[in-house]
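Supplementary Methods S3. Input chains for the assembly prediction are listed below.
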Amino acid sequence: MQDELALLARARSLDPEALALIHDTYYAPVFRYVAARVGDQVTAEDLTSEVFTRFLSALRDRSAPQTSLQGWLYRVASHAVNDHFRQHYRARQVDLDDNLPNGEAGPAETVEKMLDHESLRQAVTELTEDQQNVIALRYGQGLSIQEAAQIMGKNEGAIKQLQARALAALARKLRRMNE
Amino acid sequence: MTMDTVFEARLIECLAALEAGEPMEQILTRHPEDAARLRPILEVAAALPTLTMEPRPEAAATSRRAFLAEAEALRAASRRPRRAGNPWPVLQWLGTLILVLGGLAVLLAVSDSALPGNPLYGLKRGIEGVQLVLAPSGEARSALERRFNQERIKEIRALLGGAGAAQVEFEGIIEVIQPDSGLWQVSGLPVWVDSNTQIVGTPLVGSTVRVRGVTEVKGGNLVQASLIAVVEAGPAPSLTPTVSLTPAPSGTATPTPQPTPTPTPTPTPLPAPTATPLPAPSLAPEATEEEDSGTPDVTDTHEGEAESGGTSDGY
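Predicted structure tokens for the full assembly:
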């Protein structure tokens, strides 16, 4: 915690080393979170860069976080994803991956697997914002219940309940997609 | 619990087991009645981690370059001399500061007259504390401490004058000790001392003591002392006047003052004021400017001192 406070203090003075360290530390976690919500590599990369641009703007406007940087970055990432969803119509598409997996699964099963993935990604984007957040933090980023609770500002029981309901909603959506 | 709530609790437990690495089939065998409902949800939970994407190194590197370049541009902009821009944010800041300072000034002015028990009294004492911290050591600090102690005495007089009851503490010189009645007079204030009063040191007439207690009415307005601690043993004053809480009628006038000093009483320990008798005060004090009756009383002395202090009890 003390290290993060010191890092933030240096970042507020636009110290290049501190800023580089922040980018190196948080780029991947923010990307995984964003990717879990938008389901697209390129979009996730663009939005992750946007998060760091917004961080610089906050430093310039003196509205950057004073204590917890991680929580702040996830919240900004959530806003960036919401803005993206509002601005773009997401049509359901099927993208065939050029890199085929090993030969154990045949083409039909591979396509079926990607459809499932695509369906699952699509279903995630149809959840409520809180449900998307908990899925992205817990499964996209691999955070614990406690860490997700801290970032989302909820208690652990609420996170468990939110997660259970999000997963149940996903299962219902997938069943409807397959009907 | 409703059925849905029961199922939800069961689902939460199963998800925790799945995350801990327990095989799904084994989890479902524990809940055969809900297995059909639980299975698809647990399968989704098991599939979600496969959606995890990792950032491409080249994308991370591109983002880093752009981020640091933008930061450098910001640093360069902050080093340039400021042009006259929009003054509005500065004016807003100044306006807010003026409002805050003005409100603070009002609060400080109101708290200055606050008495113990008043919500602003803590602020008053806090300000005094800050002043003491900032005061240079030596005579300046001592003068400040004396001023604040006088303020404590002034506050107690106001409370005894009917402003209310409160915990009080002050430092003063013992002027009278009446062991038979339990009434003492410390810097003009009537103090009730009984078996519940903790005595520290050997208080004598003339000693400087710290008094802690509560103001209350007890046959007269006084300070019920819970503690009297000797700060400095001083020479006994030449005269030991009688303490009374109410103006004494002329019929009870005590003898006129004697100019001859009385001998200093022998110091004796005082675990309880009534336990060790002290020489009973037998002489009225020298007449002060405010006195015109033979028997001084505490009330008169208070008012006299208050008037001579140039302040009124305007609380």
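The longest helix of chain A spans residues 16-38. Confidence is low (pLDDT under 50) at residues 91-112 of chain A.
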